[in-house]
Design a protein that fits this description.
alpha+beta; Glutaredoxin; 5 strands
């Protein structure tokens, strides 16, 4: 009796194996991309950056003032015009601890330029690389604040301001966008819905109460 002829379709089997391999590879890529999207951004480190809160800290006073600012936010510019000098002087005199939190929530208002993330990231670059220049750079960012609806300053311009503040060492960090994701993570971590957001001694204030709270704090 003749042996039965094999009907095994090795071509079909090979195709099936190839499809499975491709699907596994795609699945692995999706998992990798998702993990990259949800992974925390690189965290800046220096003597003036609080690793737990992300604050850039000035002064060592008993009373604390935390400000959450977006460098594209025009109201933040108004806030700095009204209170920035007073807060910075109080920190310099040791009357308060001033915690500045650069965050990004307004990228959608920079015409695709993602200026909120780029400028806040640049602020962290300076604080990490040249802490002594951080406050001057902070003030320069508001002095040169672009209008909402524009692309904002270029990275080259942000680097030029860093050099002007004495933080040339931060320019490569600014060009690389090293801390841009970190600034977006901070907005989420601190549940910031609008800027400026101000806290005094850990208590978050309504904007309408800022003036009265500062008057009480500073006498």
């Amino acid at each position: 009796m003749a042996a039965a002829k094999s009907n095994t379709n090795w071509f079909a089997i090979g195709v099936s194996i190839a499809v499975v391999v491709v699907l596994v590879a795609i699945g692995g890529l999706v998992v990798f991309l998702n993990s990259q999207a949800t992974a925390p951004g690189a965290a800046p480190q220096s003597d003036i950056i609080n690793e737990e809160t992300g604050a850039i800290t000035f002064g060592d006073g008993e009373d604390t003032v935390d400000t959450y600012v977006d460098f594209m936010c025009p109201i933040c510019g108004d806030f700095e015009d009204a209170y920035g000098e007073q807060l910075q002087n109080a920190a310099a005199d040791g009357d308060i601890t001033l915690n500045i939190h650069p965050i990004s929530i307004l990228d959608r208002y920079s015409a695709g330029g993602e200026y909120s993330s780029r400028s806040a990231g640049a602020m962290y670059c300076v604080a990490a690389e040249e802490p002594n220049a951080a406050l001057d750079y902070f003030n320069l960012l508001f002095t040169n604040q672009p209008d909402e609806g524009t692309t904002g300053l270029t990275n080259d311009q942000l680097s030029d301001l860093a050099t002007q503040a004495g933080a040339e060492a931060a320019t490569s960090c600014i060009a690389d966008g090293t801390y841009e994701k970190f600034t977006r993570d901070q907005a989420v971590a601190h549940e910031i819905k609008g800027t400026p957001t101000v806290e005094v001694n850990g208590e978050r204030l309504d904007n309408a109460d800022i003036a009265a709270s500062f008057a009480k704090l500073f006498g």
